[in-house]
Design a protein that fits this description.
Elements: E1 13-16, H1 22-33, H2 41-44, E2 57-60, E3 66-78, E4 84-95, H3 104-116, E5 123-126, H4 129-132, E6 145-146, E7 156-159, E8 170-174
Length: 176
Amino acid sequence: MMATNSADAAAIRLEPLVESMAEPVERLLDLTFGYDRHGRTAYRLRERVPAAASLSCAALDGEGRLVGSLQSWPLGLFGAEGAMTPLWLVGPIAVDPMLRNQGIGRAMLRHALAAIDRTPFPAVLIGDPEYYGPFGFSADATGGWAVPGPVERRRLLARLAPGAVLPATGLLGPRR
């Protein structure tokens, strides 16, 4: 069951995303992104790999209902001659439509990025630069990257540590 009013947003807590939440997460993703979401390019980037539990989280309201989820996935930038640069794909980030604009998505993103920052790999996502720019994401490094499907180039974003450099070209795909 999804939350029904913004009063529930005040008591949100973030917890690890566990396997028992799989069905509620799928319902939330359907509600947020639609039933046709599986055809999107981002889904091709995470095919046949499990989400990284330590870099994913669930937002629960005061009654323990799932009102948000964020998953992160092992991703690679595959270059010439078999070279692979490990990355993390952030998303999908889903929030119950009745609780949008309450800061839940931003809280989950900050939580996931703190965990990602403890790893040696940068974060990548497909999303609106206006929303993700304040979190350090930009399309500056991704212009020469290929993806397994259509993508608006301005929405393919990476978040690099200061001074970090990624390959200018390569093909993004699941890291197995």
